[in-house]
Predict the structure.
Amino acid sequence: MSTPATLPGDGRMRRIARFPLTWMVIGLLGIGVVSALTGAGSPVLALVGAAAAVVVYRLVMRFVAGRSAPEIARARAGREALSGAGIGLGFVLGSALLIALFGGYSFTWSSGAGLSVVLAVAATAVGAAVTEELMFRGLALQALERLWGSRAALAITALLFGGMHLANPGATVWSSLAIAIEAGVLLGAAYLWRRSIWFVAGLHFAWNAAEGLLGIPVSGHVSPGLLTAEVSGPALLTGGEFGLEASIVPVTVSLLIAVPMLVRAHRSGGLLPARGGDR
C-alpha cells in the first residue's frame, strides 16, 4: 500500500508549530480571547470560560504542540485540586491571622451576606484560577522550560505574573514585585513539584476565594464577602488598598512554602535543564 504524499513544506511547518514559543503564543492568544469574552461576565459565564479554556489548551497541545497533556489529566484531578486548595486556604488564613495579630486586620460579619455571595466569589475564583494557571504554568512555564530550563522559566513567569497585576486598582511597583514572589514563585514551585495544573489551580482558587470571602481586596479588586475587613496600620503590613498580596507577611510565608516545594521537585528530578527546544 502506498503512503500518502508529503508536501515539501509539511515538515518545516510541523517543526515551526512544535517549537515551544509557537504553541505558547497560540495557546496564550486562544485562552486570552476566551478570558476576555467571559472574564467580566456573570459567575456562570466565568465557569463556562474556565471549561472553554481547558478545551482550547487541550486542542493546542494536541494539534499544535503535538504532545499529550498529562498535566490536565482527569485521573486524580479532584485529589490534586483539593490538595492544592488546602495549601492555598492555609496560606491565606495564616497570613491574615498574622496580620490581625499585629493589629492590621479586624473582621466583622457583612450584613446581607449569604449563599449567593459564596457562589459568586467561588465561581469568579474558579474562572480566574483555571485560565491564569493554564496560561502561566501550563503554557508559558512549560514552553520556556523546554528552552531554558525550569529555573529560568520559573523566574521569567514569576516576573511576568507580577507585571500583569501592575494595572490593577491600587497597584504599585512593590505590589507587583510581591505578587511575583508570593504568587509567581509559589504557584510555579507548586507546578514544578506536582506537575499538575489541577493542583496549582486548586491553590490559586482557594487563595482568591478565601480573600474574597474575608472581605479583603483580591489583587486590588474589591467585592462583597461574608466578612468585612477593617484595615489599620502601615501598608507594608496590611497591603493597603491593594490587599493582602501587597503585605510583607504573605511574601515571607509564601517563600517558606515554596522553598520546600522546589527542594522536593529537585529531589524527584522535576527541575529540568535547558534543552534549547523540543526534543
Summary: The longest strand covers residues 105-109. The chain has ten helices and two strands. The CA atoms of residues 114 and 226 lie 7 Å apart. The radius of gyration is 20 Å.
